[in-house]
Design goal:
The protein is an alpha/beta fold. The chain has five helices and six strands; from the N terminus they run αβαββαβααββ. A six-stranded mixed β-sheet has the order 1-2-3-4-5-6, with helices on both faces.
């Protein structure tokens, strides 16, 4: 299975989960194209500079939940390989650029024990994998998340 084949089932899964919690969620596939007008419209003018940094690379999925008191952004980076430290930094970069409340790094492979141990042993990784960056394992045959690190946002 190609990484691209994971985008739509993961997008659908996350949309369902977010809509239970928030009711008003947008989540779009952005890996191959640009950002839709819907997404761009929600980025404040003072923050549009982020698009100049995302011309050649961007999160696989991006979206937001809209609430009465504002917008909470969602960034998702998807891998079909075991997660490594560079992947964590990449996912964190996207979450930080969008000031995302929910940043995800999702792999179809088991979250490596080395990443979990490094998280527990080093301050810098604890700050990277935090409340706004969540690692998860996607089970292809079940079409669902089977492991969250450190915890599910739902």
């Amino acid at each position: 299975m190609k990484e691209n084949d994971l985008y739509e089932p993961i997008r659908t899964y996350l949309l369902e989960k977010f809509n239970v919690k928030f009711k008003n969620t947008i989540l779009e596939d952005t890996h191959a194209g640009g950002f839709s007008p819907k997404i761009k419209k929600e980025i404040p003018v003072y923050n549009e500079i982020i698009f100049s940094f995302l011309k050649n690379e961007k999160p696989d999925l991006i979206g937001y939940v809209k609430e009465d008191y504002g917008v909470k952004y969602i960034t998702v980076e998807i891998k079909n390989i075991p997660i490594n430290l560079n992947d964590v930094y990449q996912a964190k970069k996207y979450a930080d650029l969008f000031q995302a409340r929910y940043g995800f790094l999702i792999s179809s492979k088991t979250i490596p024990i080395e990443i979990k141990r490094l998280h527990n042993r080093t301050y810098i990784l604890r700050t990277l994998i935090s409340e706004n960056l969540i690692l998860a394992e996607w089970n292809i045959s079940k079409n669902e998340m089977i492991d969250w690190f450190e915890k599910s946002p739902f």
